[in-house]
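#structure-requests
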Amino acid sequence: MKLTPKTRRNIARIVPFAVIWLVTGWIFILVETAAMGTVSPDSPTIINLTWTIFLFASISVIIVGLLFGFMELVFVEKLFRERRFLSKIFSKFALYFLMMLVIITITYPIAASFESGLSILDKQVWEKFYRYLGSVTFLSTLLQMACSMFLCIIYAAISEHLGHSVLLNFFTGKYHSPKEEKRLFMFLDMSSSTAIAEKLGHTRYFELLRAYYADLSDAIINHQGEVYQYVGDEVVISWKYKDGLKDNNCIRCFFAMKRGLQQRASYYHEKFDVIPEFKAGVHLGDVTTGEIGALKKEIFFTGDVLNVTARLQSLCKEYQAELLTSGELAQQLHTLEYFKFQSLGNINLKGRSGTMEIFVVEEN
């Protein structure tokens, strides 16, 4: 079964939670094993470490991490989205802590059963569990889980604000040194944004933008795009060269976003008395990519392709077009029977020497 881009992205976002739990779990196991040298191996609350117990513990923390990530992605982040940062952190922590207590109640008796060879329903297994709840070992376990949860919550917060792919690039150091690569860009701008902002006022306009960007997200993800920047009412979307051309993702993404907003038209009409529309320019070319900034680091693209794409987007109003693309990109797209490309001829773009053939793109 072929996974959709959104499913692959969600898996990539969930896996780091499992890695965090596994690594912190191993660290605490090693620390506790070292500390066991001063504790009697016959202690009634300690489960002696064997390879079976180690394997069980590793599998358990991986499952807990995956569950943690799944809940964060599907439920918890949405539940606390409107809260302030610190309130969100503490609320998440309290919820997950209660969940961890339930997991301890399930996993400890199973581990004790493995160690003793007794049935999980045996009285001795549960007596050991009750002694464990009042022991230093239990406090140590709570500390481990608290550390794992805290790291996961902080990771989730940073990932949400920077974006998963950007955060991954920072961790791997992919762009620590500038690299040249070929990319596609789309500059997408809300139509009549100034008039809409004047009509709604700053607060309601901000709410509109938040809903608008959220509704564009699924189409971007499903067509393998990455949000490079939000600039006011404009969003800059980027694709790796192969991803953008594959199945005409860069063009299909535009019309998918358009359909997504049309499906939400009644919501925007009822809440804002406005149905947002947009126009866009798409182009491809070489860029230099790297980390930049002294007080704040970010992944930065620079190259003529960004200037050209911005110019294409600005020409949409002049030519009364929703989507303009360069001839260079149009020549590299595949199976165009779903789209109609109408040439506007060779046009001299502002601030650029020479001319470029430009196409209006529409759905058939």
